[in-house]
Amino acid sequence: MSIIERALAKAKQEDRAAVEQAEGLVHRPQAGQDAQGAVAERTGDVADHPAVAAAVEAEIEPAALAPAPAAAGARRVRDARAAAPLLYVEDLRCAFDVSRPWLERVLAREPRRWLRAVDGVSFAIGRGCTFALVGESGCGKSTVARLIVGLHEPSAGRIVFDGRDVAEVRGSAERQQLRSRFQMIFQDPYASLNPRWRVERIIAEPIRVFGLERDEAAIRARVAALLGQVGLSPADGAKYPHEFSGGQRQRICIARALANRPEFLVCDEPTSALDVSVQAQILNLMRDLQDELGLTFLFISHDLAVVRHMADEVGVMYLGRIVEIAASRALFERPRHPYTRMLLAAIPDFSRRGRGDDAVRGEVPNPITPPSGCSFHPRCPLADARCRGEAPVLRELDDGRRVACHAVEEGRDTIEAGAEICTEVS
Amino acid sequence: MNVPHIDRMNAGGDLPLLSVRNLRVEFPRRRGTLVALDDVSFDIARGEVLGVVGESGAGKSLTGAAIIGLLEPPGRIAGGDILLDGEAIHALRGEAMRRLRGRRIAMIFQDPLTSLNPLYTVGEQLVETMLTHLDLTPAAARERALALLDEVGIPAPAQRIDHYPHQFSGGMRQRVVIALALCAEPELIIADEPTTALDVSVQAQIIALLRRLCRQHRTAVMLITHDMGVIAETADRVAVMYAGRVVEIGPVAEVVRAPAHPYTRGLMGAIPVLGAEVERLVQIDGAMPRLDAIPSGCAFHPRCTEASARCRVERPELLPAGATRAACWLYAPARENTDGGPQ
Prior knowledge:
heterodimer; A: about 425 residues; alpha/beta; 8-stranded mixed sheet; 4-stranded antiparallel sheet; B: about 350 residues; ATP hydrolysis activity (chain A); ABC_transp_ATP-bind (chain A); ATP binding (chain A); ABC_transporter-like_ATP-bd (chain A)
């Protein structure tokens, strides 16, 4: 919570000088020429619309950029807590109506039924850092990704990008300008590329949509540069997606995502559809691009080993809620929430041949009718009456991580798990 | 009911249960023939778990399909032998193959929903399979179905036996599929990506279940998966496939600890591991070749950092390489000597 509070406090400062300083200090050295272009484009856009410009000058723009100065020094430190948040979400909720059709429902005298896919999720992502959400299918991690990029409308909660509440951005020009700073990479590179378009048109689409370049020759040059950046040849632009393998297609998706020079990429299981050797290529590429362009990633995956490799900070989700959120190393070396521990125990690993059968029990319950209290209690070895009746909230522990578990809070987890943790440390 | 089974087990003696020799599978096309499996050889002993690992397109699922006689036309076995307990089964057709399938060799597929019939209760499907293959009365078959459902860890089997597949969760469905595979007491189970469609916590349970049941029933398993972690935890030996060929085969601990073939080494390095933090993963540049463009010599040579002139022209046999066998000229003895037949 402290990160969010700090960010809010900073966001309230209205210091015009700081803004200008931020523009110069933060963006330009970060991404070199790329960011310079983006900044120029943004200021250009704002200037084009006097009404917008006035509104921006009055309040929104200072609020938006005020937290940035802190980021100037902190960016290179890949400690998620030290960096100022580029994006944070607060108490994000999304419920889907899964009721039967009206007539059937009325005849059967059934109430409406809601699937709470995301149920009060809060986290912050530091500039230049990678925040990962992990969990099993149906835990809501992809829904969070879709909420952030605006593919779903949240039922409640706030998404604040660079100090600005995304929901409060009105007007298409301004909205477009904000949206041009995020991009998304999807899981399935076979489904996310239009098979009837040539690769150059696919990659140029964001450039054209956001109007970043008007000149055809400049667009072509930019597409060629992007293809080179992701390890393809500029000549590949004339081909169609079906001429590429899965890994190459994912490279095309990454090139498209980078086309409008975003600062923030949402990657929803970007390597789940790929083979391991290709996955390694894509993960290496993503890390190189992050270092080169200063990108911030929200990384969604079910694969804990991939998450450990990529993330600076990790949130573990279970049935729409974050149960544990911690720096990557701390989480993997010393998981605290029983669900995190169970997930880690479940991963097949080279070193753990022939372990017992009962490390893991039960299955993810139906999210339409989640269990009472802590939704993990039916599978939890530490559950007691309080867990069954009362839902735990995230509480910060000594080492800065946050865990939503009554057992951890009451210290009940140490009896059974103490030995296990000790052996891991020693 | 178990009498013929026990007979076969005793008669088997030291013969491997399954022996695949120089298997070649082709897909004839108008423009040339695609060779999908080329000179694949391996053995599986009774009660042994052989992991078959490889990336998509390596031919691992096709090997399984060829053994159980489920190659999709126009795919056909163009050469080699498949021996089950010394008996050639690759030429069996129609009724003879059908009797073998399910009875002596069972198969578990990736997606439990498509391998169960949605119109029948799980009990009906189990009973039908048992009545087809075993000499049982319907009542006895139902009794056994109940026992099996209990054994694979389905809670309240007496109620669940009359449920339809859609009433089960993914993990429970895969348990039903395992019960179905085990119900005729087969000697070999081919499990093709049995846990790929499942979440990791469920995967761990299914893998543990499969391992326990096969040990109890002394069933041999050919475990096909792309997940090296699953292989490392489950298999006794592992065969690594690349472009329709076995490139390395050996005891799983050795292959994981000290992989011999450059492809296996790359594959192991490419997998992010929980226990270690690495700055960069090992990267095998390029991609698996397409079947119509398999390189000459060793199929891996264009991606191999250690390829030599010989690799480009001459295809290596499986050669002894430490505790494993690898199809790589790095392990060729000084004098050319290819006595290294399949293991």
